[in-house]
Write a sequence for this structure.
């Protein structure tokens, strides 16, 4: 292995497989390893470098598999370890690397350790793997403090002791079925190193780390003065008791040593919703994790000034620790970009934007999503594509209430519908049962007409989003990876234009009027058509050879 091949991740495009919704190979209505194996050629043709697979461990699926009952096995709904091994071999044979999702902050309440904790006494070593506390008030009837779950409601749940009496409370940042581990316990630390080793030994190339900014807590902190912060948003308080605490970095230094002891070294990607970018950079110092999702970019408005700010800040701050930037528009926790940008109204010329409350304009959203895709893939560093993004799938906003599965729905008192709308199973064919997803329906209902957005339909349309992504991913390999963003001065605040090296220019018009293209030898790729007189229209990106 050369140094360059060890650094593959610095410039990689990683495709996120939400396995339950990707492809159903067994016909039970849920995606699985068999389905993914069948579709590996599709991913290879798309031109991505690696896959990140959402949790596939045994789980009651109360939180889509982020409630893990056994970290060293695979849920029978998704397959088994021998199929996982076959998947790894086949993917590697196609030059695709595989990242799994590790969930170290919590387990499922079905995990053996949690069952043992419930059966044991307060103060026992079994309880010490989780965060159990006595309640407040004369009979311990009140939760230990006012901390809230990010899914809504209290972050504490009371148990019944083995003798039938009302008992202690356990802490859960997320659903009640997801008790948090106590990371001050050396046994928990050792266990996770061993779990990582288990999968690395099987041939897994790395991990996306769920809630990488959680794990370490200061349970002595007082009540939190809450405002109405949203899902996965941390309340904006300094010295937060359970997010982004400095102690977490020591854990990652140990994890990095383990990853580096493998040949080739294994990779870690942090899911850390922290602010400002300087805090994120701490996770990717050279003896910690390799890279981190850039949620600042994901949240940026469709406006030239906000995108430019985010790009500049990300590149500068990450470069200060020697880490590459990453770019992400979608994942399984956020609204699909077609819908998000179809809602957003940009006040052209002012470089500002606001979110419209009105109906989504999907045509507009898709047009912008194409431009946004090309912008993202023109930037230096790594990029992430969430399954279906390459098809331009919108958020499904009208799932029937009785179909909703995200715990956010119930925990928010049915005020937040949650994240199911971006998790609807993929359409592979124009017609047929479950539009080619599997043979027998799907675990979330697919909307009527979903087949018009299928891979089959996109293959047949040379102007489809799929062809755009495929071409962009192929051409991206020719953009010199080491060349930074070199902004071109343009006399229009709604236009982004930058050079990478001497031969490549990317221009995005986010303003209301068409603009002239800068000098160029050749138009390489466009997210939409030029005007009749060769101008770049609103919400359009061009890649140019100069
Ligand atoms: C995952 C979510 C999950 C949560 C709890 C997140 O950050 O991406 O899907 O609900 O962690 O594990």
């Amino acid at each position: 292995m050369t140094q360059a091949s060890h650094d593959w991740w610095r410039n990689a495009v990683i495709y996120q497989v939400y396995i339950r919704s990707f492809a159903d190979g067994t016909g039970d209505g849920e995606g699985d390893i068999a389905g993914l194996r069948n579709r590996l050629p599709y991913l290879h043709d798309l031109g991505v470098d690696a896959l990140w697979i959402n949790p596939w461990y045994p789980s009651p699926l109360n939180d889509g598999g982020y409630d893990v009952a056994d970290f060293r096995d695979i849920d029978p709904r998704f397959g088994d370890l021998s199929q996982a091994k076959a998947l790894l071999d086949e993917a590697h044979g196609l030059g695709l690397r595989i990242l799994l999702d590790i969930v170290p902050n919590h387990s499922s309440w079905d995990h053996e350790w949690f069952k043992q904790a419930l059966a044991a006494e307060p103060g026992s070593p079994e309880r010490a793997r989780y965060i159990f506390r006595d309640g407040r008030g004369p009979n311990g009837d009140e939760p230990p403090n006012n901390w809230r779950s990010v899914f809504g409601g209290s972050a504490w749940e009371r148990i019944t002791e083995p003798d039938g009496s009302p008992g202690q409370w356990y802490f859960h940042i997320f659903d009640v079925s997801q008790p948090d581990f106590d990371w001050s316990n050396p046994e928990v630390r050792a266990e996770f190193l061993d779990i990582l080793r288990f999968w690395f030994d099987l041939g897994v190339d790395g991990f996306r780390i769920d809630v990488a900014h959680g794990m370490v807590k200061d349970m002595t902190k007082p009540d939190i003065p809450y405002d109405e912060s949203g899902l996965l948003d941390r309340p904006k308080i300094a010295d937060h008791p359970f997010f982004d605490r400095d102690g977490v970095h020591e854990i990652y230094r140990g994890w990095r040593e383990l990853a580096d002891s493998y040949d080739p070294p294994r990779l870690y990607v942090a899911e850390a919703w922290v602010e400002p970018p300087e805090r994120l950079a701490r996770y990717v110092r050279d003896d910690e994790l390799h890279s981190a999702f850039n949620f600042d970019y994901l949240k940026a408005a469709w406006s030239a000034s906000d995108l430019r700010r985010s790009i500049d800040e990300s590149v500068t701050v990450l470069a200060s620790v020697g880490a590459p930037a990453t770019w992400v528009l979608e994942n399984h926790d956020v609204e699909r970009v077609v819908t998000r940008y179809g809602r957003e109204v940009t006040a052209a010329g002012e470089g500002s934007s606001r979110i419209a409350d009105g109906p989504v304009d999907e045509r507009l959203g898709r047009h912008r999503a194409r431009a946004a895709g090309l912008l993202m893939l023109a930037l230096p560093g790594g990029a992430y594509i969430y399954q279906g993004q390459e098809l331009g799938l919108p958020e499904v906003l009208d799932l029937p209430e009785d179909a909703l599965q995200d715990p956010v729905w119930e925990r928010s008192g049915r005020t937040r519908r949650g994240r199911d709308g971006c998790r609807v199973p993929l359409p592979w064919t124009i017609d047929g049962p479950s539009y080619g997803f599997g043979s027998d329906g799907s675990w979330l209902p697919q909307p009527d007409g979903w087949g018009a957005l299928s891979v089959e339909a996109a293959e047949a349309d040379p102007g489809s989003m799929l062809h755009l992504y495929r071409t962009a991913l192929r051409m991206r390999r020719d953009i010199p990876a080491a060349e930074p963003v070199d902004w071109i001065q343009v006399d229009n605040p709604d236009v982004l234009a930058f050079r990478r090296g001497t031969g490549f220019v990317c221009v995005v018009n986010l303003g209301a009027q068409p603009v002239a293209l800068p000098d160029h030898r050749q138009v390489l790729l466009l997210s939409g058509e030029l005007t009749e007189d060769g101008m770049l229209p609103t919400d359009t990106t061009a890649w140019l050879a100069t």
Notes: DSSP finds 15 helices and 18 strands in the chain. Confidence is low (pLDDT under 50) at residues 347-356.
